[in-house]
Amino acid sequence: MLLTGITGLYIAQSVIGGITWTALPALMREADVPLDRIGLVSLIALPWVLKFLWAPMVERYRLPKTGGNRSGAIVLFGGLISIFGLILSGSLDPSGWMPLFAILTVVAFAASTVDIACDGFAVQSLASGHHGWANAAQVGGAYLGSALGGGLFLYLVGTSDWQIATWAMAAVLLLLGLPFLLVASRMPSEARREHVPSLLHALRRPLLRRGLFAAGTFVVAQKVSLGMIGPFLVDQGLDLKTIGLINGSGSLVIGSAAALVGGACVRAWGARPVLILALVLQACLLSLLAAASLTGAFSVPIMIMIAITSSSGVMAFGFVALYAQFMRLSDPRQAGVDFTLFQCCDAAVSIIGGVVAGHIAEAFGYGVFFSAAAALALAVVPLIARVSADDHSGHPSNDRGVTPGSGAR
């Protein structure tokens, strides 16, 4: 039941992300919004970049010095804001991007705050032997949520309209959040805690700083092309209904399967080989997309397969290893703060990469853009080989004086 509740929240957060970063760019492109404006969608992720600023306050509220765990209260309040935000978004025209951006930014703020509580709850409540399942919940839940938010949502827009599709996703969020609230209500009501969560405690740890560098390096190579794949398919003549089916099936089938394969490979080989292999595979696929754009030699079905393998398969495969490192490097006494720092690094790089990607694609075309993204993925391989965890079990020796999972109850 615990994993079910946690998985539900990860799926819900990715439904919001799928609507924002997968569906919205395609909708804007169909409305003839320029690519450089579409690149600004990445700015909606600002709360995910800045949430480290309020993560200590959230953790102190969630884990008071005396009293029960308040994760449920944070999830309830943040979830209601997210649901109301989607309902309000449904009343707007997606081509009028500024009001929509403002509302979705508020939703992102609520969802990112919920994520602080959810990540902290997961690291703290699960014994280290179950962290692999939590990583599968994170990555697998992300791709299932993306299938709903980026796939089913676009399909509903194409077959009905924006309002019905958006309100349907609001209902999905409500259903996904209920299991966690049931789990949180059963947590022990009394506890005493000596540690006070803080950013300073996190940033003093050398392993955490090394993990931040590894995260930024890996994410910039893997995610820089993500926001341009939807517009690329639109410009190849695909309609929203077809793209919705592609995103949905790719995330649900390829992404989920790749997450399971990635988890098995991390368990067998360790994190470093999986991260390197993911970068090499991404470079190959982006090179094929560049060739498709420059030469026009590939058929539409082949381009579709390349696109979904890149955005769903390889991404899921690599991020299982990356998130496994995040969890194992987080101090369970303030897991919400530590894990948040890793995710903020991820979001910051995604924002910068998304904005730059839009300008490069608009100025030079998809062929040059995808070629540059492929070269970048190969260029960071030596850096990832140096800074990623090299322990075969995926459990790097830590420097915080506690064992991963020692905060489990």
TrEMBL record:
Signal peptide: none annotated. Keywords: Membrane, Transmembrane, Transmembrane helix, Transport. The keyword Membrane applies. Its main location: membrane. Pfam families: MFS_1. It is a multi-pass membrane protein. The chain crosses the membrane at residues 38-54, 74-92, 98-118, 139-158, 164-184, 212-233, 245-266, 273-294, 300-324, 363-385. It is found in: Membrane. InterPro entries: AmpG_permease/AT-1 (IPR004752), MFS (IPR011701), MFS_trans_sf (IPR036259). Residues 390-409 are annotated as: Disordered. Belongs to the major facilitator superfamily. This is MFS transporter (Putative signal transducer). It comes from Peteryoungia aggregata LMG 23059.
